[in-house]
Amino acid sequence: MGANSATSSKAPMPPGMIMGPDGKPCKICTAFRNWRPGTTTGVEANEKGRTGGQKSTAAMMAALAAGSAVAAPLPRPDVPPPNCPPDVEQLGRATWTFLHTTAAYYPERPTPTQRANMLMLIRALPVLYPCTHCADDFGEDIKVNPPDVSGRVALSRWLCERHNQVNKKLRKDEFDCTKTDERWRDGPNDGSCD
């Protein structure tokens, strides 16, 4: 280990970058827009990857205005390209969707085996979840607020409350826990999802 190692370990982390347990930047724990390996910012890397060294945005817009280019969606530097592994935000949304939907279809009167399986699923998250920062936080939360697997309504409410705890920490809006069935099982009353 040379002087560069000592210097780089003391260098400030870019905003939003999360360190993993190995002391290196954690890709799965960091939002794509904040991922800055090396000297290129996540935004710069995304722009390079999406444009492939082709036309600039101004040149593309001029071509579109002239009708000489096929309209394509503009690159979003905060979202990874579709073939990339998920970032922390995509993984979180997918995990919460899975958990809430599973709770929405959980039985009202679960058997002892169903209760045990649900508890195993919930308790496995802090052990197996790829984002160690998220996993540790969830593990601490379920120690303080043990899972309620007594039935569908109780489990849905418990998960909604856990999700809202995360939303508070992330300064996001909280979800109305009286609407869990509407969101993850039945759909809105207007029939727009039927």
Tags for this model:
mainly alpha; EC 1.8.3.2; ERV/ALR_sulphydryl_oxid_sf; 194 residues; Four Helix Bundle (Hemerythrin (Met), subunit A); ERV/ALR_sulphydryl_oxidase; globular; single chain; disordered N terminus
Question: Could you give a short description of this structure?
Answer:
The chain has 194 residues and is mainly α. The chain has helices at residues 3-10, 42-51, 57-65, 88-104, 112-128, 132-144, 152-169, 180-186. Helix 4 (88-104) runs antiparallel to helix 7 (152-169), helix 4 (88-104) packs across helix 8 and helix 5 packs across helix 6.
Structure notes:
- The chain is built from eight helices and no strands.
- The chain has 194 residues and is an all-alpha fold.
- The chain is globular, with a radius of gyration of 22 Å.
CATH architecture assignment of the largest domain:
Up-down Bundle
What's the gyration radius in Å?
Answer: 22 Å
Please give the alpha-carbon distance between the first and last residues: 61 Å
Uncertain parts: 1-9, 39-55
Number of helical stretches of at least 4 residues: 8
The major β-sheet equals: none
**CATH fold descriptor of the largest domain:** Four Helix Bundle (Hemerythrin (Met), subunit A)
Strand content: under 5%
Spell the H/E element sequence: HHHHHHHH
